[in-house]
UniProtKB/TrEMBL annotation, chain A:
Heme c 2 binds at residues 143, 146-147, 189. InterPro entries: Cyt_c-like_dom (IPR009056), Cyt_c-like_dom_sf (IPR036909), Cytochrome_c4-like (IPR024167), Cytochrome_c_Oxidase_Subunit (IPR050597). Binds 2 heme c groups covalently per subunit. GO terms for molecular function: electron transfer activity; heme binding; iron ion binding. Residues 122-212 form the Cytochrome c domain. This is Cytochrome C. It comes from Massilia psychrophila.
From TrEMBL, chain B:
Its cofactor is heme c. PANTHER family: BLL4482 PROTEIN, BLL4482 PROTEIN-RELATED. InterPro entries: Cyt_c-like_dom (IPR009056), Cyt_c-like_dom_sf (IPR036909), Cytochrome_c-type_DH (IPR051459), Membr-bd_ADH_cyt_c (IPR014353). The lineage of its organism: Bacteria, Pseudomonadati, Pseudomonadota, Betaproteobacteria, Burkholderiales. This is Alcohol dehydrogenase.
Length: 241, 424
């Protein structure tokens, strides 16, 4: 079977037109994708996939939704201070902030690389001890008492520590000490930060930074940790407010 | 001879004195219509709450994360910082001891309960137009709030701006009490819009230039907002945000939802939409739109398109950056994908003479305000960490000069200045 001569030409014309169309209109989809991924490109531009060890733009994917939501609200209400974040969220409704937090809590990125460390074994041992047992002498509970045995956080609002870059951990302790990072009162982490010396902070951040993220980085279930917490925390209260 | 001199001097003095007496902002008193007007009835409280939204009182009278209406927010001015007072009904630190007449005096005459002259950062130059009935409803609403004990912070103004005498002089020059007078030749809707825009809405506090004494110019001719570093465009000029050529429904859509087919709001206006205008009724926003659309267009000077090899090279560099960073959302044709991604072609926020808003949008990105009609807005990424000053200048220059846009180039120095402008 053969087509009449003009038809192949016409077909070719239609094809070439169709191929040319998107370029003619614009290099973008004709319909806006109705997805969270598209809605939050303002966030992923900084909190991007390949910045797993960037202390400045922390990794937010996979963190518990309640924790992420609390941070968005803290930026909006001035308890955390980073003007660009405050500017981003200050005119967004609570329901949308929750949806954004849920979205990122369900994103799972490749584990960040382990950070090699050159500090002494004694420092690492001090870090391990503080993280896993705490130090009664300075009234600092073990990190794992709240952040979970595997340090992957606890649902719904306690963040994981495993996989956090060293610089990020140091920066947060510094911010708590300087009162530029706060949480809803009682601010347990501010209390703990003020009980730790800078050497202790460095010991903790080096020990955490040198450990690989567990194969299953999901936060533990709420029942995995003992209540009441060693210190009362406004952002993860023992009793529902 | 001496006698003549003395007579002339005395005459001049008398004329000056008469001028001052005539110009002196005399207090006006209008009584409440009845005792019912200031009664704490659910109806009065609801009406007052609505008017407080329309005036966006809470935005200034609440510190970030602090209790509503309890004040404490620092307001930067070129003359020093003002600390916005507590207006909850606490007797000691708020306005719990005030009666409705005291409140009216503050709104209409710009004087505190104790007779102290108020600083016009509290925009009584606008609020003086508010009717006694509306002031009473606001008073009843504020009285219904939980009393918050939070002492006011003293203003930190420099000399001589911290002197009441200086303020008296300012008022002599720039303030005259007077309730809004309806224009008979115009419709009820137009007059309602004018009342809201010129009075409670205090649009001119931003959308007007301020002189060296901080007084706003008449009209809504646009101006750089002091200390915030955003340019509030002229609502009269077709080259800026004049609305003569817009359909009223699109103006209403922009003001109530934050987005429209032609443009989205951002910066301080996003706050105004999120906290105030989205809560104002369709009828009232339509009235405001009707009034704004009717403002006479000011003449705009024709611009000569910048040309030359240097400009061409800069535009070409900007085009490359645009194709890397911007094209996915705004398109190669600059038409965007409204309402999420506003068009850049013909977008006056970009083509206005003053490029500050375009530069700051590229630097900081941002979300359109979340509103009842647009509760999950799309956002634009910040580029401050991805582009240096010259790159931002190039991409803004390209956008300002493409698809029929003909705005002059922007240089790296300007970008640098706006990069360091605080965001909050």
């Amino acid at each position: 079977m053969s087509l009449p001569a003009p038809l192949p030409c016409l077909a070719a014309l239609v094809f070439s037109c169709a191929a040319a169309l998107p370029a003619l209109a614009a290099d973008r989809p004709a319909v806006l994708p109705d997805t969270m991924a598209q809605r939050v490109i303002a966030c992923t531009s900084c909190h991007a996939k390949n910045q797993g060890t960037d202390a400045f733009f922390p990794r937010i994917s996979g963190k518990p939704a309640g924790y992420l939501y609390n941070q968005l609200v803290n930026f909006r209400d001035g308890r955390r201070q980073y003007p660009l974040m405050t500017y981003m969220v200050e005119n967004l409704p609570d329901a949308y902030l929750r949806e954004i937090a849920d979205y990122f809590s369900n994103q799972h990125l490749l584990a960040p690389p382990v950070q090699p460390t050159t500090v002494s074994q004694a420092v690492l041992e001090r870090g391990r001890m503080l993280v896993t047992q705490g130090d009664k002498a300075i009234k600092v509970p073990a990190c794992i008492a709240c952040h979970g045995e595997r340090l992957t956080g606890v649902a719904p609002a306690i963040p994981g520590l495993a996989g956090l870059p060293r610089d990020y951990v140091n920066a947060q302790f510094g911010a708590w000490k300087n009162n530029t990072r706060r949480a809803r009162a009682p601010d347990c982490m501010a209390d703990i930060a003020n009980r730790l010396s800078l050497d202790d902070v460095a010991a903790i951040s080096h020990w955490i930074g040198a450990r690989a993220l567990p194969a299953d980085p999901a936060p533990a279930a709420a029942a995995a940790i003992k209540r009441p917490l060693p210190l009362a925390c406004g952002s993860s209260p023992d009793h529902a407010p | 001879m001496k006698k003549t001199f003395f007579t002339v001097f005395a005459a001049l003095l008398a004329v000056a004195l008469i001028a001052v007496i005539i110009a002196w902002p005399r207090e006006q008193f209008v009584a409440s219509a009845s005792n019912e007007a200031t009664a704490p009835t659910p109806g009065n409280i609801a009406r007052g709450a609505y008017l407080a939204r329309a005036g966006n009182c809470m935005a200034c009278h609440t510190a970030r994360g602090g209790p509503a209406y309890a004040g404490g927010r620092a307001m930067g001015t070129p003359f020093g910082a003002l600390y916005v007072p507590n207006i909850t009904p606490d007797r000691d630190t708020g306005i719990g001891a005030w009666n409705a007449d005291d409140f009216w005096r503050a709104m209409h005459n710009g004087k505190s309960r104790d007779g102290r002259l108020l600083y016009p950062a509290f925009p009584y130059t606008n609020y003086t137009k508010v009717t006694r009935a509306d002031a009473d409803a606001l008073y009843v609403f504020l009285r219904s709030l939980p009393a918050v004990k939070q002492a006011n912070t003293a203003h930190a103004l420099r000399f001589p701006y911290n002197q009441q005498a200086a303020l008296a002089g300012w008022r002599l020059l720039y303030f005259k009490p007077g309730v809004f007078e309806p224009v008979r030749a115009r419709s009820l809707v137009w007059n309602r819009g004018a009342y809201l825009v010129e009075g409670l809405g205090h649009c001119s506090a931003c959308h007007s230039s301020r002189n060296a004494a901080g007084a706003v110019a008449a009209g809504l001719g646009g101006g750089l907002i002091p200390t915030l570093g955003w340019y509030a465009p002229s609502l009269e000029s077709d080259a800026e945000a004049g609305l003569g050529s817009w359909e009223v429904p699109h103006i209403v859509q922009l003001l109530k939802t934050g987005v429209s087919p032609q443009a989205s709001v951002f910066g301080p206006m996003a706050e105004v939409v999120a906290r105030s205008l989205q809560h104002v009724s369709e009828a009232d926003v339509t009235a405001m739109a009707t009034y704004l659309k009717s403002l006479p267009a000011t003449n705009t000077e024709a611009r000569e398109k910048a040309t030359g090899p240097q400009v061409d090279q800069f535009v070409a560099q900007g085009k490359k950056l645009y194709e890397t960073h911007c094209v996915d959302c705004h398109g190669a044709d600059g038409r965007g994908l409204a309402p999420a991604y506003p068009p850049l072609a013909g977008n006056r926020a970009i083509t206005m003479d003053n490029p500050v808003n375009a530069v700051r949008i590229v630097l900081n990105g941002g979300f359109a305000p979340g509103t009842a009609a647009n509760p999950r807005p799309y956002g634009m990424p910040p580029y401050s960490h991805l582009m240096n000053d010259a790159e931002v200048a190039a991409v803004v220059t390209y956008v300002r000069a493409s698809w029929g846009n003909d705005a002059p180039p922007v240089n790296a120095g300007e970008v640098n200045r706006y990069r360091s402008t605080p965001l909050d």
